[in-house]
Amino acid sequence: xxxxxxxxxxxxxxxxxxxxxxxxxxxxxxxxxxxxxxxxxxxxxxxxxxxxxxxxxxxxxxxxxxxxxxxxxxxxxxxxxxxxxxxxxxxxxxxxxxxxxxxxxxxxxxxxxxxxxxxxxxxxxxxxxxxxxxxxxxxxxxxxxxxxxxxxxxxxxxxxxxxxxxxxxxxxxxxxxxxxxxxxxxxxxxxxxxxxxxxxxxxxxxxxxxxxxxxxxxxxxxxxxxxxxxxxxxxxxxxxxxxxxxxxxxxxxxxxxxxxxxxxxxxxxxxxxxxxxxxxxxxx
Length: 284
Hints:
- The protein is an alpha/beta fold.
- It has a single domain (12-207, 236-255), classed as NADP-dependent oxidoreductase domain (TIM Barrel), CATH 3.20.20.
- It is 39% helix and 15% strand.
- The chain has helices spanning 35-46, 61-74, 95-109, 127-139, 153-162, 181-190, 209-218, 222-232, 244-250, 260-267; strands spanning 12-14, 20-22, 26-27, 51-53, 83-88, 114-119, 143-149, 169-173, 193-197, 236-237.
- The longest helix is centred in the middle third of the chain and has 15 residues, at 95-109.
- It is globular and about 55 Å long.
- Residues 34-270 form the NADP-dependent oxidoreductase domain.
- Pfam families: Aldo_ket_red (PF00248).
- GO terms for molecular function: oxidoreductase activity.
- It comes from Paenibacillus auburnensis.
């Protein structure tokens, strides 16, 4: 897995298997299926985004699929130009059930393959069978890359004991109040790409005084500073937005570089504070 600082919106990192994953994408968590979703995804692709992240539990894969079909035609792009991620939900974490869930996601998205498929949560006693299903699909050429989401170090260590194929990505809640330093170090050592969900802490950091001060110094928004911090740390990031102005603004982070001092200052904001569930204590 090679790391380099992203220079533009369509820049990518090479995963451990050589697949290119964009550093920056659009997440559609909590965006209801329908016109707003379709418009947001199409807007992102029109503005140069190439990565879209959804999940079975978001219940919006059909809308994402509609948007992808329309965006490909309107922007004269091929399927290979896009990087599409979905995730298997907790209720489907058995070998056969995971394969069936993958087929269902593909059908809803109207796609022949996914670029990345993730186990959404580390449900104890279930994720190894699901991982075996992902390995089967991957070896059959049905998925370009496979990975996990919300896995802590001990979950990864447990999975790696029996895995034939090591996860290529671990998508976790990650933002300046939850910087996940130990997990990032572990994943880097294992060749697992870290990806941040809720990079803006669901908007909870936009009034943070240190971040406001840093942002003012660059003439940028707090959101832009946080997303830039992600990239400079080698973290793939997928901010969610449905507003075209915000979708464009979020991606305008390739014309400045945070200083080492400001990176360290943001690092120092960590509180191990989550907005989402704790992967060691969740109930779905």
